[in-house]
Amino acid sequence: MAFERFKNLQLKNYNTFGIPSIAKELILINNIDDIFLAVNQEIFTHKHLIIGGGSNILLDGDYDGIVIKNNLKGKQVIHEDDDFVWVKAAGGEVWHELVMYCVDRNLGGIENLSLIPGTVGAAPMQNIGAYGVELTDVFETLEAIDILTGELKLFSKADCAFGYRTSVFKTNLKGRYIITAVTLKLSKHPLIKMQYGAIKDVLAAQQIDAPTIKDISNAVIAIRSSKLPDPKILGNAGSFFKNPEISSLQYGELKLVYPEMPGFPTQNNLTKVPAGWLIEQCGWKGKRIGNSGAHKDQALVLVNYGNATGQEIIALAEAIQQSVLEKFGITILPEVNLIS
């Protein structure tokens, strides 16, 4: 028994930024036994990087280690009652394909998360979210394998310690587990959420008064497609920065200076400010430096115009962070994982 492995592999097609990087080795995980084999061969004791769709990483050079790609496939309904359906999907499944699987069956809860790049296994790691919905809203459990012991563990929602674009897999247990499957609890009687962003405007333009979850999904796809570049055409990793949360006091003070500044109250007397707005106000929207830049339609998205290195993208990100800090006194942090 052996898994697929490749020496000195070019990773340009394995990361959506399209950054050229040579990995010392790449291993494909096509089934659970491949993980157990890797554990037994102590693969994970060497420098390694576990990836799914490569949509949330930025490589800053060649990778002198082993890249392990989660290629696990499969999705199915495992339980249902009068109100809910539990859907289980393997970690290597494409996230958007899972969304379409559920929307086509009128199972509500993740339609607002349409067209988010990446895989199912990566979704809980950063608690993906968009248009007023987060993964945690429908999350039931996940299965993951400890890469040091080979133990298969079931994680509850509480175990995952979800926060804004984070989880225990990005903090205390970072790099410790491979997520093999995720189970979501979806509704047979969907609650339509269209208050966030331009969803209402898109539906109104289409004269849709009583939208279905398919209508919501189509609206989100239309919005994202109009604002976000296709990584297959223009390298990017989606939103590069997290939306910062600042104290309501600081927000109130900034609002006096910048009356048009948007903000959304969150917990603990904090206000979330759109990072894209901050970056745009600093003049970065559509600005290009060499082979990198901030996208012309969405300043929050940093792009590779074809030949950028990871270092160029990092330098651009740091310049943007510094300008936002100087203008607003707000620190914005990357949502994308920087890999050395």
Description:
The protein is α+β, with helices and mostly antiparallel strands and 340 residues long. It folds into three domains: 4-70, Uridine Diphospho-n-acetylenolpyruvylglucosamine Reductase, domain 2, CATH 3.30.43; 75-187, Uridine Diphospho-n-acetylenolpyruvylglucosamine Reductase, domain 3; 235-339, Uridine Diphospho-n-acetylenolpyruvylglucosamine Reductase, domain 1, CATH 3.90.78. The chain has eight helices and 20 strands. It has helices at residues 32-40, 95-104, 157-160, 199-205, 213-227, 248-257, 275-281, 310-328; strands at 4-10, 22-29, 48-51, 57-59, 63-70, 75-80, 84-90, 129-130, 133-134, 139-146, 152-156, 177-187, 235-239, 245-247, 264-265, 270-272, 288-289, 292-294, 301-304, 337-339. The longest helix is centred in the last third of the chain and has 19 residues, at 310-328.
